[in-house]
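pasting for the record
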Amino acid sequence: MVAILTSELAFPPPETASADGLVAIGGDLSIDRLLVAYQRGIFPWPIFAEDLMTWFSPDPRAVLELDQLHVSRSLARTIRRKTFEVRFNTAFSDVVTQCAAIAPDRPTTWITDELATAYIHLHKAGHAHSVESWKNGKLVGGLYGVAIGGFFAGESMFSRCSDASKTAVVYLVERLRDKGFVLLDIQQATSHMLSLGAEEVPRAVYLKRLERAIALDRQFI
């Protein structure tokens, strides 16, 4: 049975999720609640038109192994040519706004204004980060996510020209490797991420890895 959240900062076990991964409904998007959710393997994903937040923990869970990133020849060429200037955390709010924007390949968005504001608060508190691809002084691609210990949860990405978001992923993986992170969660597999080497693992396996990852003392920046 899907839980209805109260003001208490608690979630039911992820294993109680429905077949589609829905764990709970309701609750706020405070920094503390979001951090508790991520540490339990749960993330917010609004699916109702009503003002009710929904929380998910799908099974299987998609991850991108840091030692199994697939870089195509064309992407490697783009990176060698330094087509993009890649920056970290210089335009977090803009990245979130672009990720939420309607695009030809994305007629709707799950990133509500409330959710966008919540991640901006997480960023200001030092828990959320952006990786940005710039070209000719313009932000043309990027991603953002949440870091806890040695764990990074990729939330969303956008691209306004070829390879812009994929370049951001490559730089993200390099940063996570350099900083000693051990788990990159991408929540659900997409064709875009599968092309970069993403794979699915059983939720039980993911949760054990998550527990070990968040116990590590790591800093993204």
